[in-house]
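Researcher: Go.
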Amino acid sequence: MFAYTTPLIGGLLIGLSAVALLLFLGRIAGISGIVWGAVSGQPDNAWRWLFVVGLLAGPLLYHTVAAVPHPTASALPWWQAVLGGLLVGFGTKLGSGCTSGHGVCGIGRLSPRSLVATITFMATGIGTVYIIRHILGGV
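Model: Structure:
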């Protein structure tokens, strides 16, 4: 039962945090924009750093309190992880936002641009998994 409720609770917390950020600060909870604003030194970046710290501390706190084992390290070589991160960053900049900004907040605000962006990155993800698993024979 716990395995099924954890994603539900996580989804509810993501939705509540997105709504709270919009209500209290008038900001969209797009992670890429929040992180970029924090590291680029925008004048109102204190809340951004708190958000980023919460993103990192939340899972650690959950695993500690819930006594759930921490995920194991990936077998992926470091350079592939770095390359993947750079490609995600490039795509985020190209698409003017990330999955959280477009998928969670944009669709919730009925933004046509976010709907198109979400359909595009979901279709690309599905296509990539299909090609890697079924055509190239990867894991």
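Model: The chain has two domains: 1-72, 74-139.
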